[in-house]
Write a structure and sequence with these properties.
Number of strands: 10
Radius of gyration: 27 Å
Number of helices: 20
Helix content: 40-55%
Order of helices and strands: HHHHHHHHHHEHEHHHEHEEEHEHHEHEEH
Strand order of the largest sheet: 4-3-7-1-8-9-2-10
Distance between the termini: 82 Å
Structural class: alpha/beta
Length: 514
C-alpha cells in the first residue's frame, strides 16, 4: 500500500503547527515552561490535534488549517499579554467572553489591545483566509485511507488518546493564572479551568443564614423612624488618588472628606479586582463571599449564577425584611448578564441605560450627577423602605481616549503633574464629578423624613500605566465609608475592611443585623 502525498502533507502540517504553538507560548508575559508534566503535554497535543483534525476535515486544506490555528493561538498570546499589562493577570478560559464583548462593547476592550493591532490582526486574518482558500488546493484523493482522511483518522485516534490520558491525571491547578500557565502551558490550563468551571462553588453566603432567621428586634417596616432607606454606591474605579501624589488639590474630594469625617466607619477597602473585572468586587459585596473561596469562579461569579448556582445576597435578605430592592446602572443591563443575574439576587427592578434616554453624557458615559438625580427621584417616590444599589459608569476607561481640557491642570493640581499624567488629569476630572454626586445625595438624604444610610466604595483602581510609572503603583486598595443620616460624628473611626465583609458591617451599623 502506497501512501499518497496528501497523507504526508496532513501529518507534516500538523507537526509543524504543533511546534509553532509551543514556540508562541514562549512569547507570553508569563512564559510557559518547557519542563511541564507529561500530562500537560498530552493535553496540549491532544487539544491541538483534535482542533486540527476538525478544521482539515471541514476545509480539506491542511496548510491553511495550520495557519488558522496558529493565528488564533497568536491572538491568544497577544490578548493575554495585553490583559497582563493592563490588569496584571494572564488570560484564562473564563475570559472567552472577551471576544464577543469586544464586538458588543468595543470601547471597553479594544483600546487596551490597541486599535492598530486590532485592525492589523483583522486584515491579516482576512488576507490569510483569502490566500489560503485560493492557493492551497484540496487533494484529489482526499477521501482515500491512504490519503488525507487516513492521516486525519490516525491523528484523531492519537489526539483523543492523549487527551483522555492527560485528563486522567487531573492536574492540580492553583487558580493563579500566571503560575498555572507557567507550570502547564496555555491549553492545559484552559482545559483544567474549563473542567472546574462546570462545577458550582461549594461556599454559601452569610446572608443565607440571616435570611432563614426571623429577627424580632428589627424595626417595623411601616414606621418612618424604623427601617432606613439604604443606598450603596459602587463608584466606578474610585479611589483617593491624593494618596499617590500630594500635588493634587485636596478640595476635589471635599464632600467625600466631609462624609468620611461624619461616617460610622471609613477606611481603605481590599478588593479582588485591579483595573477592571467589576463583577468580582460587586459579587463579593452583595453576597458576602470572599472572592478567593470561589475557586475558578472567582474570575466571573455571575456565570455560575446563570448556570444554576443559587446564592443569597444582601438584596434577597433586605427583600425578606420588607424592602423594595432596586439596582441603578446607566449601561445596558445585558453587560455581564446582569439582566439575568440580578433578579436571581433578589432585585425587583433594574434601571439601566434605558432609564437615561434624555440625559446628556459626561464624556462617553452617563455622568455621576445624573445618576444621583435618578436615585433622588426613586427616593422621593418611595412609600416604604428601599434598598438602591448603584453602579456608576462615568469614570470607566479607557481614560487615554479622552482629552485634557483647557483649565483642567490649573483646577485639579496645586502644581503641574509630571510628564505622562494626562490619564490622571482626566481621572481627577471624573472623580470631582463623583464628589458632586455625593453632595447631591447628601441633599436628597437629608431632606427625607425616613432615616437613610449610604455605603460608598470603589470597585477597583483605574488603569493608568503611564501614571503609575511616573508616580508609583498603588497597592490596589480602594476607599469606602458608611454614613447614617442620624449620625453627625466628628472623627469617624478608621477601619480597613475586605469587601466581602462590608455589607454585613453596614447592616450591623444600620441596626438591621445583630
Amino acid at each position: 500500500m502506497t501512501l499518497e502525498p496528501g497523507f504526508w502533507t496532513a501529518i507534516l502540517a500538523a507537526l509543524s503547527g504543533l511546534a509553532l504553538t509551543v514556540g508562541l507560548e514562549r512569547f507570553l508575559q508569563t512564559a510557559a515552561s518547557l519542563r511541564r508534566p507529561a500530562a500537560a503535554w498530552a493535553l496540549h497535543v491532544g487539544l491541538y490535534g483534535l482542533a486540527y483534525v476538525v478544521l482539515v476535515f471541514v476545509l480539506g486544506r491542511p496548510i491553511f488549517a495550520t495557519a488558522l490555528l496558529c493565528a488564533f493561538f497568536l491572538l491568544l498570546v497577544v490578548v493575554s499579554n495585553a490583559k497582563f499589562k493592563a490588569l496584571r493577570e494572564a488570560f484564562v478560559f473564563q475570559d472567552y467572553e472577551y471576544f464577543t464583548d469586544a464586538i458588543r462593547h468595543p470601547r471597553l476592550y479594544i483600546p487596551f489591545l490597541g486599535w492598530g493591532k486590532f485592525f492589523l490582526a483583522a486584515a491579516g486574518f482576512i488576507a490569510a483566509l483569502t490566500i489560503g482558500l485560493w492557493l492551497e488546493a484540496v487533494p484529489a484523493l482526499r477521501a482515500a485511507w491512504t490519503g488525507q482522511w487516513g492521516a486525519l483518522a490516525l491523528l484523531a485516534v492519537l489526539s483523543l488518546s492523549l487527551l483522555l490520558w492527560g485528563n486522567r491525571a487531573c492536574l492540580m491547578v492553583q487558580i493563579v493564572p500566571e503560575q498555572d500557565v507557567q507550570a502547564f502551558g496555555l491549553l492545559a490550563s484552559f482545559w483544567r479551568y474549563w473542567q472546574q468551571g462546570r462545577q458550582h462553588p461549594i461556599v454559601s453566603s452569610p446572608f443565607a443564614d440571616v435570611t432563614s432567621r426571623t429577627d424580632s428586634a428589627l424595626p417595623e417596616a411601616g414606621s418612618l423612624g424604623g427601617q432606613p432607606h439604604l443606598i450603596s454606591v459602587q463608584s466606578e474605579s474610585f479611589f483617593d488618588a491624593r494618596r499617590i501624589w500630594d500635588g493634587i488639590r485636596p478640595e476635589i474630594l471635599a464632600e467625600f472628606d466631609r462624609f468620611r469625617s461624619q461616617a460610622s466607619a471609613s477606611g481603605t477597602l481590599q478588593v479582588p479586582a485591579w483595573g477592571a473585572n467589576t463583577v468580582r468586587s460587586e459579587f463579593s459585596f452583595l453576597s458576602g463571599i470572599e472572592n478567593s473561596a470561589l475557586g475558578v469562579h472567582r474570575f466571573n461569579p455571575y456565570r455560575a449564577v446563570c448556570a444554576g448556582w443559587s446564592v443569597a445576597t444582601l438584596a434577597s435578605y433586605l427583600k425578606s425584611q420588607g424592602y423594595r430592592t432596586i439596582c441603578i446602572h446607566p449601561y445596558p443591563a445585558s453587560f455581564y448578564q446582569r439582566n439575568r443575574v440580578f433578579p436571581l439576587f433578589g432585585f425587583e427592578e433594574f434601571l439601566d441605560i434605558k432609564a437615561f434616554v434624555d440625559v446628556e453624557r459626561t464624556g462617553p458615559y452617563i455622568g455621576d450627577r445624573a445618576v444621583a438625580d435618578k436615585v433622588t427621584s426613586v427616593l422621593e417616590q418611595a412609600t416604604g423602605p428601599v434598598f438602591i444599589h448603584v453602579i456608576t459608569m462615568e469614570n470607566h476607561g479607557p481614560l487615554h481616549l479622552e482629552k485634557v481640557a483647557p483649565g483642567d491642570v490649573e483646577s485639579l493640581y496645586r502644581q503641574a503633574p509630571p510628564e505622562g499624567c494626562d490619564d490622571l488629569t482626566i481621572y481627577l476630572r471624573h472623580i470631582r464629578n463623583a464628589d458632586a454626586m455625593l453632595m447631591r445625595l447628601r441633599e436628597a438624604l437629608s431632606a427625607l423624613e425616613r432615616p437613610a444610610s449610604l455605603c460608598w466604595y470603589g470597585d477597583h483602581v483605574p488603569i493608568m500605566p503611564s501614571v503609575y510609572a511616573a508616580l508609583g503603583t498603588p497597592c490596589g486598595d480602594v476607599d469606602y465609608f458608611i454614613w447614617r443620616s442620624e449620625d453627625q460624628l466628628s472623627g469617624s473611626p478608621h477601619c480597613d475592611e475586605a469587601i466581602h465583609e462590608l455589607a454585613i458591617r453596614w447592616m450591623r451599623l444600620s441596626g438591621l443585623l445583630h
